[in-house]
């Protein structure tokens, strides 16, 4: 808990980083851009429903004989301007209405996996919202086989390993979350559903409401994460840690306002799954986002970079790394650290996961690519100096 005076002081200390507009981006050096494209990454905060691009949304509506949610792809994209988290969620849940059959879920997940693999995502831990689909009259036997088959095909065809995390919607009841966990039971132990999370509307929905269902998930051996500190205060992050015992905090950017919380996250090496373009589009820390992200990356916390709801927020992994690198003025070494963090924070590649050998091999790839990018970076700097001398 942070007293008001301490919070104001913490906020004041951040303004020293401010001043740059989020709309004016410095040009990324070609070497850094290539490195961001090539470096292997794990994605740990992505909602499969948020990868529903307008083209697929309209195609699925037509396939299922439903009225199109938008008259055209352009109209859909034009509607994607959000005032805050809730204004996004309203459109997001409406978009989910086109998902009706097993094949729809397969096509949706495969579209994400193909796009992620193109951005050199080699491993993904993917959220989905069963309550949304159950509310649309679908059963687990409809969406889960499609999602599971896509994860298997992503591994076989794309070399991208993937698993799913069931998210409970925070504005819904604890009883509904508990029923949802019961529905997931047949899918546990098959390697597809590995954990539970909390997503959706944050303000007014503190995490402690879900203490019992998270306890039950722990007894089932499931991993636990939660969206906290996206729009909500640091107290919600404390609750997620102390009451839900989460292993990762999703978003968590508002942790910056509480020095004791930052210290606790650092000491426990609890990762934050940060989603820069999501924060930008949902106006989190509006006008100060670049300053906050800069401070977060420089804090020493296990910060990871993720795309959240890529179809709605304007970019997948590479776009998020690129935006953050430009916003926070990062070089190759810092981006390499973020990629390494994504493996450390993964439930499949992190310490004690059994995936250490694969992580070591991935870290070697990161180091080799970084060494080459640093050489290119130096050549580019030398070329700029030569050009200046000639002028
Ligand atoms: Zn999210």
Give me the secondary-structure topology.
Blueprint: H1 4-14, H2 30-38, E1 41-47, H3 54-63, H4 73-79, H5 85-95, H6 102-118, E2 121-128, H7 130-135, H8 140-158, E3 161-169, H9 174-184, E4 193-199, H10 211-219, E5 223-228, H11 234-242, E6 248-251, H12 259-268, E7 272-274, H13 276-281, H14 289-297, E8 303-305, H15 310-313, H16 317-328, H17 332-344, H18 356-390
Parallel strand pairs: 1-2, 2-3, 3-4, 4-5, 5-6, 6-7, 7-8
The chain binds zinc ion (ZN).
The parts where pLDDT drops under 50 for at least 5 residues are 1-24
What is the annotated CATH architecture? Alpha-Beta Barrel
Pairing-aware structural class of the strands and helices? alpha/beta
Count of individual domains: 1
Give the strand order, joined by hyphens, for the main sheet: 1-2-3-4-5-6-7-8
Bound small molecules, deduplicated: zinc ion
DSSP helix fraction: 40-55%
Overall mean pLDDT stands at 91
SSE order, as H and E? Answer: HHEHHHHEHHEHEHEHEHEHHEHHHH
Keywords: Coiled coil, Hydrolase, Metal-binding, Nucleotide metabolism, Zinc
Pfam families: A_deaminase
GO cellular component, one term: cytosol
Protein name: Adenosine deaminase domain-containing protein
């Amino acid at each position: 808990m942070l007293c008001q005076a301490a919070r104001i002081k913490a906020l004041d200390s951040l303004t020293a980083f401010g001043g740059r507009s989020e709309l004016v981006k410095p040009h990324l050096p070609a070497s850094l851009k290539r490195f961001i494209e090539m470096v292997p990454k794990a994605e740990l905060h992505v909602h499969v429903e948020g990868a529903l691009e307008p083209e697929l949304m309209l195609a699925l509506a037509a396939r299922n004989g439903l009225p199109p949610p938008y008259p055209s792809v352009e109209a859909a994209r034009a509607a994607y301007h959000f005032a805050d988290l809730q204004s996004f969620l309203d459109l997001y849940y409406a978009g989910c209405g086109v998902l009706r059959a097993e094949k729809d879920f397969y096509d949706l997940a495969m579209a994400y996996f193909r796009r992620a693999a193109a951005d050199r995502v080699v491993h993904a831990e993917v959220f989905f919202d069963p309550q949304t689909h159950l509310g649309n009259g679908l059963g687990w036997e409809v969406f889960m086989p499609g999602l599971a088959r896509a994860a298997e095909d992503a591994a076989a065809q794309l070399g991208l390993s993937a698993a799913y995390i069931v998210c409970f919607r925070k504005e819904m009841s604890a009883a509904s979350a508990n029923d949802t966990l019961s529905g997931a039971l047949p899918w546990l132990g098959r390697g597809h559903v590995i954990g539970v999370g909390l997503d959706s509307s944050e303000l007014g929905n503190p995490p402690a409401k879900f203490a019992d269902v998270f306890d039950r998930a722990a007894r089932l051996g499931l991993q636990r994460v939660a969206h906290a500190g996206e729009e909500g205060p640091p107290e919600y992050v404390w609750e997620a840690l102390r009451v839900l015992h989460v292993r990762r905090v999703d978003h968590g950017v508002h942790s910056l306002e509480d020095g004791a919380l930052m210290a606790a996250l650092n000491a426990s090496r609890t990762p934050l799954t940060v989603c820069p373009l999501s924060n930008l589009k949902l106006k989190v820390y509006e006008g100060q986002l670049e300053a906050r992200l800069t401070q977060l990356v420089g804090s020493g916390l296990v910060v990871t970079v993720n795309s959240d709801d890529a179809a709605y927020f304007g970019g997948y992994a590479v776009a998020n790394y690129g935006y953050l690198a430009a916003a926070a003025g990062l070089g190759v070494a810092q981006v390499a650290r973020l990629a390494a963090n994504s493996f450390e924070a993964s439930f499949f590649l992190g310490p004690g996961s059994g995936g250490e050998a694969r992580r070591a091999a991935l870290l070697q790839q990161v180091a080799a690519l970084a060494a080459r990018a640093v050489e290119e970076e130096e050549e580019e700097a030398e070329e700029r100096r030569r050009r200046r001398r000639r002028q």
